[in-house]
């Protein structure tokens, strides 16, 4: 009853941040000159526009979230540079309202669930599959929440089994990421129940860690206050801007950034965020982690290290081959593969660079899931879960057959 009352209060409370009339403009540079124009435009508009996708390369879309008062200005500047504009989101608040419209107070695999519902589901799974599923606390948050993961596999207390680690929700607003993690878990356990050979092999040969919501404080904040929140919720000294990007706070090629208001602010130092410090401690102490995948949204990309440099890592050939095969397993999807810096943008202090560079986990990948916006219809959850499970299954089985950790 208490869970229902809390849920009802969440839905009844208007979010503190409203996005009525906000649009997303997409501009895709066709050549280097157009790309250079967009880079200049970003420097001009940086304080007025939220760049969901920054200018990075030719034929790579640039997405700008623009409030109503600046839309004429932005359109004038873009059109004045002979750039074509596509409106991919006509009214962001309408999309947000529709995203929540079918949400119920009980857990469902085909809706976006609150943190409370997700944790209840995790506990229910551990009770239902007590011999192969447990809930483990892998970290803690600034606001005092536990960060919880599912540990799936036989011989729960064995320290000799190899592991794979799959996480979602490190960026709070990317709701399709936790939802996909949850749906993939369902498919894995359904497969085990039906004696599917691949699912059985994964559960018998590996400990699969599934962390649906990494940034628990931020995710909760997207439900109560600001659907577009990305960072953690820790305060920043001498600034009214809150939060650090938890995917820029890992201790590998970390680089300071001046603006504490930036959505990619990396913190005062590596591991300044308790979420990052405690989860990395947990991963470090696991036995033989064969694969690490950090699931994000949006844009359909399957990426390898490095993020901090366009130079390719020593193991790029095998990483690219596994990426291509994982994407092929997904079916009719158009995922772009390659290194982070070459596919999306340069990113310092990322999770994938740390797991590969510091821990030597060869199969470390960052995945941007389906969709053209951070707000996506819940009708796409099952398809995202199904296709991504096929890719996850390929990586897990490859890791079993080709162990890279000693």
TrEMBL record:
InterPro entries: M14A-like_propep, M14A_act_pep, Peptidase_M14. The keyword Transcription does not apply. Keywords: Carboxypeptidase, Disulfide bond, Hydrolase, Metal-binding, Metalloprotease, Protease, Secreted, Signal, Zinc. Its main location: secreted. SUPFAM superfamilies: Protease propeptides/inhibitors, Zn-dependent exopeptidases. It is found in: Secreted. The active site is at 368 (proton donor/acceptor). Residues 111-399 form the Peptidase M14 domain. Belongs to the peptidase M14 family. Involved in the digestion of the blood meal. This is Peptidase M14 domain-containing protein.
